[in-house]
Amino acid sequence: MNRDDQHECFERWMTDHIAILYRVVNGFAEGSDRNDLMQEVLLAVWKAIPSFRGQAQATTFLYRVSHNAALTWHRTRRNYLKRVEQAEPLAGAESSLPDSTDERLEQLYAAIRRLPELDRSIVLLSLDGLSYQEMAGIHGLSESNVGVRLNRIKQRLAKTLNQKEIYEPR
Question: Would the pTM count as exceeding 0.85?
Answer without folding.
Answer: no
